[in-house]
Amino acid sequence: MKSSIYLVDVDRPDTWTRYRNGLCDNCMANCCTMPVEVKLADLVRLQLVDPFEAEHEAPKQIAKRLSKAGLIDHFNFKYEIYTLARRASGDCRFLDANTRRCTVYEQRPNTCRKHPQVSPRPNYCPYGAKAHAR
Questions:
Q1: What sign does the dihedral 123-23-91-60 (CA atoms) show?
Q2: Among 21, 94, 95, 107, whose Cα sits 20 to 30 Å from the Cα of 42?
């Protein structure tokens, strides 16, 4: 039986949908399963790093602490970019698994704020419609 749900592969931008206003209202938040790269300012805004620590600690030391705490998966030393850790499901740690909404929307990283204008396929997103309960 053919599924009525259009399958989207977040790793294949050619399967993505052109973004339009309101699209997020009925989406499964597939973009929130993609790696989230952040800068130190984002980590401060998310309250994962204290402003004092950000000002006085080397980014490498901050990365070590965050990695040990399971908050980041990777740190790019050259560009000082941290990749947030995700749940075992692949979801962003800040995505509510039931509502599929961001729990830190007002504090979300710049990467998320700029999506989908800045993405692997600008102005397209890995839209996947929420399944409706019957």
A1: positive
A2: 21
